[in-house]
Structures are given as C-alpha cells and as structure tokens.
Design a protein that fits this description.
Layout (H helix, E strand, L loop, with lengths): L1 H23 L9 E9 L5 E9 L3 H10 L1 H11 L7 E6 L2 H14 L16
Parallel strand pairs: 2-3
Antiparallel strand pairs: 1-2
C-alpha cells in the first residue's frame, strides 16, 4: 500500500514541477529551452526530492544552474499546489536517458538493413 502512495506522490510532484517550470518560472535565461521533468523521486520522509531534468535546445549546465538558483521560488509554488508534510529540498539532476536514446536511434538509422518482403498472409519470404 505504501508503494502506491509513494508513486502517486512522486507523480503529483513531477506534474506540478513541470507546470511551475514551464508556466510560472519567468527566467529569460531559460526562454527557448525545452525542459522536461523525467522523474521526481522523493524520500520516504518527504524531506528530499531528486528531480530528473532533460534539456533540448540549450546548455544543460546553464539550465540546472538556473533551476538551482530558483529553488526557493519553485519550492514555494510546489507547496501551494501539493499537500506535503514537509517542503522537500530539491536536487535537480541531469537525466541523460533521452540523449542516449537519440544516439541509439541515430546509430540504428545508419545501419543498412534490407526490408523483409511480406506476402499476402503476412509470412516472410526468403
């Protein structure tokens, strides 16, 4: 039962953080950046939360730095929208998963794999 509660809380924190960063954080240094919250994992006691960030179209280090500088504002907005027993300390972490997926797709697109020829009843011809 506790794991379902944890997943719901993480999902809600993730959703609200995405809204805060996208719609409420008015930082001109982040304009034009496509920032995605990939995960929010809070500790069992709600005091800490690791937030995965994926950045497209900009310098990841600048984005992480600006989010860390805006942490106070982000936490205040988070507490307004999500009922938590404590205001968690946010740790923004660069999530490299999307970058790795793009690299894999790029490599796969360069492979020269012939298409399989299918006949009428969807069996492969040799």
């Amino acid at each position: 039962m506790s794991s379902i509660r944890t997943e719901r809380a993480n999902s809600e924190v993730e959703r609200v953080l995405a809204d805060i960063i996208k719609n409420r954080l008015n930082d001109p240094r982040l304009n034009g950046e496509f920032i995605t919250i990939t995960y929010a994992n809070r500790s069992v006691d709600f005091r800490h939360c690791n937030v995965g960030i994926s950045v497209y179209g900009g310098d990841e280090n600048v984005v992480i730095k600006q989010l860390r500088k805006s942490e106070g504002y982000i936490k205040r907005e988070l507490v307004k929208d999500v009922k938590l027993p404590y205001t968690p300390e946010l740790t923004f972490v660069l999530d490299e998963g999307a970058k790795h997926a793009d690299k894999i797709n790029e490599i796969l697109s360069t492979l020269n794999i012939p298409d399989e020829v299918m006949d009428e009843d969807n069996t492969t011809k040799n």
